[in-house]
Each structure stands twice: as C-alpha cells, then as structure tokens.
Amino acid sequence: MNAAWNAVIGLEVHCQLATASKLFCACRNAFGEPPNTLVCPLCTGQPGALPVLNREALELGLRAALALGCEVAARSKFDRKHYFYCDLPKGYQISQYDQPLCSGGGLTLATGKRVRLKRIHLEEDAGKAIHDRGQVTLVDLNRAGVPLIECVSEPDISTPAEAHEYLSALKEILQFAGVSECDMEKGSLRCDVNVSVHRAGTPLGTKVELKNLNSFAHVVAALEYEIRRQIEAYESGEPSRAPVQETRLFDVQRGETRTMRAKEDAHDYRYFPDPDLPPFHVTREHLERARAHLPELPAARRKRYTDTLGLCEYDAGVMTSSRALADYFEATLRFSSSAKDVANWLGNEVLALFKDPSSGVRAVDELTFKPFDLAQLIELADSGKTNRAGARTILRAMCSTPKAPRELLRDLGLEQIEDTAQLERWCREVLAGSERIVAEVRGGNEKALGALIGPVMKLSGGKAKPQAVRDLLGRLIAERGSAG
Fold first, then answer.
1. Which of 47, 183, 292, 444 has an alpha carbon 20 to 30 Å from 169's alpha carbon atom?
2. Model confidence over 437-472: pLDDT tens digits?
3. What are the backbone dihedrals phi and psi of residue 34, each rounded to the nearest 5 degrees, phi first?
4. Cα angle 65, 154, 85; round to 5
5. Domains in the chain: ranges and CATH
6. Which pTM value belongs to this model?
C-alpha cells in the first residue's frame, strides 16, 4: 500500500449457530439436504405463520458474547429489516436493530493491537438463490430461518493481513466455544467487508462494502484489490472516478471487485419492531448459567498445554488449531503417558493423512479409529515393536479397517525382528564384504558404522531394530579386532 494512504477496515461476520432447529420454527437446521425439504409455512413466508424464539439459539448467542468479552443487554428485541429478494419470501428479515443482544468486547492481535467489537446481534438467514441455470433462477429455502449471529467490528483494522488474523482468531474462539462449526465451505461463516482509504491527517474517505466473501483468502485478495482501486481513483484527480458508497462483489477468477448495487442506509430497510416477537430479557442468573457452560477457550488451552503438559508453543498451537483436534489430542492423552509423542503423531502423521486424498479422510471427525487405538499405535512404535515406517503403514490401514493396531502389526508382518541369532547372521554377512569400512571403524571413525547398518536393514526387509543392529555390529567388529 502507498505509505501516504491509510486503509480503514471494518468486518461484519455472519456465523450460523450450531442449533438442532431453526431460529423461529421447528424445522431441522442441517446442511446438504435436498432443496426445499427443510421448510414449513414460516420458512416460506405464508400469511399467519407465527415465529417462536429458539432458546438454544439465544444460549449460543450468549456464549459467543461471553467468549468475546461483550456486554450483554438486559433487554433486547427483534426488528423487521425490509428488502426484496427472491430468497426472502416474507419480504423482510427478522434481525435486531437498535437493541442488539450485546455490544463491546473484541480481540487482541499478536501485535497487541485491539480490534473492538461494536455489537453482536441475532438474526435469521435468508434462503439460497442459484443463478447459474441459464435464463432461470432457482431458490432453495432450506437455509431460510437458520439462526445467525452477526459480529460487527469497529473500523480498527488497517491491513488485509490484520483482517485475516482477526477472522482466524474469531473463528477459533467461536469454534472452541461450541457456538458454530464455522465451516466456510458449508456457508456457516461468511464475511462482508467495509473499507475506505484516506491520506494521513485528512477526513475518512467514502466507505465501500464488499459482500459475501466466503474464504479468508478471498477477503485478503478483495481488500488488496479494493484498496489499490480506491487509491488510484483518488490520485487520478477525476471526480467521476471517486469512490461512491456502494456494495461490490469480488470476482475470484478475475481477482477484482465490481459494482453490485448502490449501498443502502439503515432507513432504506424501514426497520420496525417485530410485532410477533416480544422483547426478551437476560437475567443475571441466566447469564451466569451461560458462563458456567462456556468451554475452555483456545488461548487458555494453549497455556495449559505449555505450562502443564510441557509442550512447546508451536506444538500447543498445532494441537489447538481446531477444537476437534484439541479434543482428540486430550482424549488420546488419557491412554498415553507422553503428551509430546501424542502431539508429534497428531501434528505430523495424522494431519498428513488429511492432505492425502488416497487416505479417505479429510478431517478429525472422519477418522474411523479411536483415540485409544492411536495411543496403542504410539506405544508399539515407542516400545520398538515396529519402526516408524511400519507404524505409518499401520496408521493408514487403520483408516479403512476396524482392526486394532496390534492385529494389523501381526497381519501386515511389520513386527521388528528381535531374534539375536538371525540379526547376527545378517550382520556377519554384511561384515564379510566390508573390510575397508570395518578398518575405518577400528580406526576410531564411529560414523562409518552407519554405512554398515543400511545393508543389514535391507537384508532384514526393514524389520531389524536399528539400535540393535548398531550394537551388534560394534560388538562383532570389536571381537574381530581382539581375535586379530
């Protein structure tokens, strides 16, 4: 970015709550079902259908507020936000306007910079419009009425990198708090961006909204392009190119933003209190009950992993990269005495499975083996029953079979050979043709012993214990020297 210009960025993050049913009706809250199968008269905007607030959605909203340090309003209400679109059959969205669920709070970035939250409010999601079917638009209302919280930040963010860090931290907290899956591929986390630029010491520029960004990478790319576009527009000196208040979309293929519509102001939505939903009150007892059910947050877990379990900061960070992984780590640790070993296996071998399409698993919740099985595999490797390569082979097999690691060790023939007589035969065979290397070892070059271990391991098919081979080779060379 040109050093003479400053960017001012605020984020509006829409997060679907992990409830069993929708916000105001009993329809199931689920992803991936056939279109328009999770609907009722309320979802489709039928006259006379009355909304009833989902208590679980309110509980999760309170949990998010507490996790982010917000001040919860004692009295809150729902409002109707009017606009026309094909995925909104009622002609309005039930949201919150002037009395949201909570205000304040925020996140602190790694640099120590504080990004404040302006508010978090509850609202219902709209349906999904599908425009890529030629001359027709299809509408799926399964998502209509799904409960959301909208987390609105103050314009405290200055760079695309800070926006990415803020979003990552927010997603992490909401996941660990059990508020949402925050799966952007399923649309359960979406982001709108407000951005303007101005020269240092001058009034703020015109704010532009970037709508419906569905990945953190897209947020960064859209911001980089839009900041550059606005700076170039101002520096051109042409009034016709000056940024205007509008909503723009990000074209992923072209890497640029384009105009979607003129940006509305709040009065354009004709907000008014929803007459079918009475205001709700959050008592102190209700708030303390929600606080008691708040799970351990990621920063607290990382500190516990370093202070109590002895993990380094890097390993603690990897183990808390998602709540699912952190939970699996702790469940495995109940059957293992070494937090470091468990962290190494999860952070290296198990996470590598997710990046390999041939493994058949992409995430922790798709693992077919239990934490007990992983702990047993780690014990087999640590005790020398099999080597690391053999343990990796067993791990991959565990993804497709219910057999225990000990069974797979036997079935796959991956036990390390402990028969001293057999190991000695292999060692003598290698020594017989390696007089030069043997002479180097006798001369004090112990590193030369490594050139003998490899051939022995090859003869054994990789099943010999490397340390046992090293010890045996050393003894045989010493005996040969004594005999000489």
1. 292
2. 878 777 777 777 778 887 877 877 777 777 777 777
3. -55, 145
4. 85
5. 5-281 (no CATH), 296-411 (no CATH), 420-483 (1.10.10.410)
6. 0.84
